What does this fold into?
Amino acid sequence: MEKYQGYIDIAISYGIKIVGAILIFIIGKWIAKLLTNLFRKALQKSNTDETLIKFLGDLIYFALLVLVIIAALGTLGVNTTSFAAIIGAAGLAVGLALQANFSNFGAGVVILFLRPFKVGDFVEAGGATGVVESIGIFNTTIKTGDNRVIIVPNSNIIGGNIVNYSKEPIRRIDLVIGVGYEDDLKLVKHTLEEILKSDERILKDPAPSVALAELADSSVNFNVRPWVKSGDYWAVRSDLLEKIKVIFDEKGINIPYPQMDVHIDQKAA
It folds into this structure.
């Protein structure tokens, strides 16, 4: 029995270490989940974007879990210094491989924090124009009016101008309507004002405006500027142009178009 005592002591010693390592892993994993959930709830209270909350939560949980694994291995007697060095080297290798995506990641964080637009907004960003389908850490998906899906790197979006057509609840339609110099300007202005009044989608406040803008080379131009709800913008704009053309034709108001007078020199011919 005595000759086996040493083996028994070693088994008991390693058994205690294994049990301790398992307990450290189980308790550490539970604590990691608890801290991660607390972090996520804190971000949710600050109205942080859900995509960013999920990403940061997963990142923190992974980092805490690595620490728990190192602690558990240390209990087993594993040289954790070497293990940590291996993890660091692997992280560096992954970082170098993904270096091109770091700018997209940083830009994605900026977009999610500053919120220049949200899912469902109609925007012009990164060379694409359309409705935002999703906002990711590395890229943003935009669906165009003709149903094309464009995946735009976030660095392209942050690096240029962002036009959000849906940010404000109302938009102003800017039309330039040209008429002939021989037309009655008072009749033209009154006709344009009546056309605006006849469309219930045009807002009364702010009030629409019709004003003489320019005495151009071949036309007298009026600025026509009604305000509408952002969702009605394109429909109202199209309807207004059609109504103006039809009613101007009915009233004999001319809409000039570019033309060229050609004079033939009979002597030269």
User: Anything to note?
Assistant: Helices lie at 2-45, 50-75, 80-97, 99-114, 154-158, 185-197, 233-251. The two ends are 131 Å apart (CA to CA).
